[in-house]
């Protein structure tokens, strides 16, 4: 097994020794998923290796500015065998999607690089650091360890990874180390303004209309500790927005004064509700989401539940209040 640093060393050795890689990340990718994928992918390509980056769906438009996004191939088009498969930001192998799973299982060895506390250690080699703010932060350390140059393109990818997973350095996972890594990435030529512009200044009118609908639905429990927002099929329709446009709405929910847990209920399909959780100070929402078959981090997690929107809202809010109450009982009052 070995410690985390041993595993980083071993991963660096594996990367130097092999020449034929396939890399992927989780479905519904975020900035960290794609930044880690393309950050590591480009580094391997720059080193003259064969590195195939695969995803089951096209890169979301919002992330197409990221260097290397046009080199990512459709998973179903890739039939070759590889020496080393690498998953990035995936808690378990199913997160990569069914097709990618087949490609990865054909590879000689599997390297799992992630920072989720709920990671399942499914690789032959696992580099899992829950202290890392983003998987991209681990990739930076790995490139350093493998003595592979961090070009401005790679830096922009890894910087995007850190920016998105820390909510622009607002979340609790913003450590001194993560800020130092971000600073080093700027030294390497990461395009700070380009990243900010593409991530936060390209909103569509539809997505802002969806925000308005979402804010209208904002509710608060009696104690004022749990707030939630509901994105129904109707609100998606009437705003003309896509499900992707609801990304980031949860930050508004948890910004409400006095709230410990923010929840967003999204009716992604009829009777299929995606639930996102954020906590501000003390509730472990990874545990809360795990109760419903999901997971993530202590302060940010999610799950998908099948059933009627209204029923699921009630169920989840009751469970959230229960866990909050249990914590407050144990500590003799709300922790600050
Ligand atoms: Mn991540």
TrEMBL record:
A GO term for molecular function: nucleic acid binding
The DHHA1 domain, residue ranges: 239-311
Stretches assigned to the DDH domain: 21-162
Domain of life: Bacteria
Pfam families registered for this protein in UniProt: DHH (PF01368), DHHA1 (PF02272)
Name recorded for this polypeptide: Phosphoesterase, RecJ-like protein
